[in-house]
Fold this sequence. Notes:
The protein is α+β, with helices and mostly antiparallel strands and 417 residues long. It is built from 17 helices and 8 strands. The strands form 3 sheets. A 4-stranded mixed beta sheet has the order 2-3-5-6, with no helix packed on it. The chain has a two-stranded antiparallel sheet with strand order 1-4. A two-stranded antiparallel sheet has the order 7-8. Helix 9 packs parallel to helix 14 and helix 11 packs antiparallel against helix 12.
Amino acid sequence: xxxxxxxxxxxxxxxxxxxxxxxxxxxxxxxxxxxxxxxxxxxxxxxxxxxxxxxxxxxxxxxxxxxxxxxxxxxxxxxxxxxxxxxxxxxxxxxxxxxxxxxxxxxxxxxxxxxxxxxxxxxxxxxxxxxxxxxxxxxxxxxxxxxxxxxxxxxxxxxxxxxxxxxxxxxxxxxxxxxxxxxxxxxxxxxxxxxxxxxxxxxxxxxxxxxxxxxxxxxxxxxxxxxxxxxxxxxxxxxxxxxxxxxxxxxxxxxxxxxxxxxxxxxxxxxxxxxxxxxxxxxxxxxxxxxxxxxxxxxxxxxxxxxxxxxxxxxxxxxxxxxxxxxxxxxxxxxxxxxxxxxxxxxxxxxxxxxxxxxxxxxxxxxxxxxxxxxxxxxxxxxxxxxxxxxxxxxxxxxxxxxxxxxxxxxxxxxxx
Length: 417
């Protein structure tokens, strides 16, 4: 497609030595090198475009765009700077971003806005777009097919700006199932995610987190593996003990009987010695004990059925079982650290320390990425799926397959231990 002498220009010349942060910027660079406007605009349309917003206005709940405009001496006036995700600057406490689609910028533009939009300013893949009609029609006609332009269930890696080896990369890879599921970069430590307003909304709606203190509390609980049901861990731990005592194989019937025996013994009452002296624990009512036994035995059935499905789907090897669901907490801890950074509840240093700790704990709790993955999937399904084997399960299985097969996967390139 040709626009004649375009009312846009590509800005700085292409630098042959530049390494693009991701495939998005590399595609833009290739289009720019060829002078291919159609390919350049189509790439922009298929990706989120971020722009700086006023944090004080967003925090105050003000409606509208709340953009922060810049100045570029090359235009001699104000500009509206937009960035593909790989070109976003490192997170700063008071500098925050939101995103929208390419077409949106043309739709919301008003005469008091800057006359020029600059894509990835100062980079080899930058371009200057006229913001006002009729010239904006040259790029505004490009748009994704529907909704959010970035699809989920794909592996995305930063070539520049994200670690690929070492403890930080290992901890980030613990969150890779969620990253693949959401279509976000697995190794993005300098996290902006889906933009400041959306990261705040995510934590508020899914976790009830609205303050730094609540974020720190949730993060500590996840890193310490205290945020999932203790009953799940008791049940799986009992099977680990039986397997150790009897050479690996655990009969499900025996597992159920052992659970009943242990619960009854605990509920009969006992005396324990503590730092404060001898404490007597009163016995529980028999009806309560029987209800607890029934609940754990039902859980054993759920676990074995999920494991059977995971073996059939290639997540678990034959005759293997899941030792723990701590991975469910640790995988979320890897992401919670970054979500809090995106919401500006914490710093890069705090988020990185939590990510490293999550990776360290995972390496102590599991033997391989495959074992870790199975533990994560089981925890997620026990929490959300209720044996429907719906998207809570199937999306994770697909993410698992991608991470266990894609040559660029961190699970194939970073040793688990």
